[in-house]
Structures are given as C-alpha cells and as structure tokens.
Amino acid sequence: MRLGRIASPDGVAFVSVEGEGSDAVVKEIAEHPFGTPTFTGRSWKLADVRVLAPILASKVICVGKNYAAHAAEMGGEAPEDPVIFIKPNTSIIGPEVPIVRPPSSERVDYEGELAVVIGRPCKDVKAVQAKDVILGYTVANDVTARDQQKIDGQWTRAKGYDTFCPLGPWIETTLDPSDVELVTELDGEVKQRTRTSLMLHDVGEIVEWISRVMTLLPGDVILTGTPEGVGPMVAGQRVSVTVEGIGTLSNPVVDKQ
To answer: Which residues are within 8 A (CB) of 154 and not within 5 positions of it... i.e. 6 or more apart?
Structure first.
C-alpha cells in the first residue's frame, strides 16, 4: 500500500494512493495510517490535490557515513558502528516545497537517502524483528549546510534549518529495502547513484542501534545515509531523489529573502 498526506479542497488528510499516472486516485483514511487503516469513502484524483510530506514525525533520526564511498569523499574512515544525529521535525517539507538556503551558509548540499517510517512505539528492537515495527519507506533529502558542518564539528545547525528535510512523495509499505536503486539528480543531471545493498549497516541493524538509545514512536523517520556524490545546490536549481519502488521526491531551491 502507498500511504500519503494530501491537501484537498476539503482539508488535509492521510490517504492511500492507488493507480499510476493520470489514473491515480487517493482515498481518504479515517484518523491515521497506523495499524489497519479504515476509509471515509471520500476520494480525489491525485492530480487534483497537493501532495504533502507523508508524515510529520516527532523526530528524524539520521545515520551518517553509512556508505563507504561517501565516508571516503568526506575525508574519513567508514565508522564501525552507526553514527546517528537528529534533525528537528520543523525541517520537514513535502514535494515541490522550496528548499531555502540560509544567508549564513555559502554551501548547501543535497544528500539523497532512503527513509524508514516507524509504525508503532518500540524500544530495544532486535534487527531481525525490525520489519515488525516499520510502517514503510519513503524518499528523503538530508539537506546540509556543508560549510557550517565543518566549522561546528557537530551537525545540529548544519542539518537543522527549516526546509532541510524534504520527505515524500508517499510511504510504500511493501518495499523490500535490501537492494533498491537510489538516484539523485540536480537539474536532470545524475549526481548520486547507488544501491541500498551497499549500505554499511542495513535497515534492521539501524533500527536495533537507534532503539537501544531512544524510544521510537509511530511516524518517527529514520534516514539511512547518503552515498557518494554529494554537492552544492544554488537558487534556481531543482534536486530530485528517486528510490526504486517508491517514486521521486523533487524540490526547487531558493535563497532566503
């Protein structure tokens, strides 16, 4: 099932997305998408609604340097254990919402990633049981003020600006995340291309590691790391991240006025 969040003439709603292309429709879910969704009976054509970020998480937990080639391009060794950090939920935006470059940064980078959406409260989850607590998967862009990341030595400011966590277009609940292609394009030019099978720590390991540290809540989002090929974006450009089996997340880039 594809689960999304949309704005229609009747308001904001969680929906299931059915069909492809111009034939796609969205069916309104009563209340929330966790557990077994129930439906209100209302539906719209996908083309007639605005697609929002599919979830508003209580927290976004990210894994750094989870691809060996990216660790190398950042000038370091691949870490033995997952390195985690948090982006605030205020950084979340949906498809087509502009990524806003702050005037305090001279270099803002794209980082295309596979994202995991948690489906129920959980703590101390074993890797082999991770699938039981996962609602599904979506596409993410871990936008980073690269110059500030280097200056600060820790990543909260560089990763935490409003608009620095695009998510979408929807959550795919049936995806096998073990070996899917991830591609990031800047103005149509491929900048990143990898397969999730090249992650140093797979989804199960990541969920186990993070849930040892903190309780995960329904809707929490885990970003699984970016591959090599990160680079800067400037105003007027468009960055698009595609994960095989999910879809494409695309956002324009602007400067803060």
So the answer is: 85
The H-assigned helical ranges of the chain are 68-73, 146-152, 156-160, 203-213
Pick from 117, 170, 106, 192: which is nearest to 144 by CA? 106
Is this model's pTM higher than 0.70 or not?
yes
Give the residue from 94, 245, 103, 137 showing the smallest Cα distance to 183.
Answer: 245
Nearest to 240 by CA among 180, 168, 175: 168
Distances (CA, A) of 30 to 36, 38, 45, 134: 11, 6, 18, 20
Q: How many CB atoms are closer than 10 A to CB 149?
A: 19
Length of the chain: 257
Q: CB-based contacts of 13: which residues, under 8 Å, 6+ apart?
A: 5, 6, 28, 29, 42
Give dist(CA 66, CA 211) in Å, integer: 17
Residues 91-146: tens digit of each pLDDT:
999 999 999 999 999 999 999 999 999 999 999 999 999 999 999 999 999 999 99
Q: Kindly write down the DSSP assignment for every residue of 149-197, as one continuous string.
A: HHHHSSSHHHHHSTT-EEEEEEEESS--TTS-EEEEEETTEEEEEEEGG
Which ranges of 198-250 would DSSP assign to H, the alpha helix? 203-213
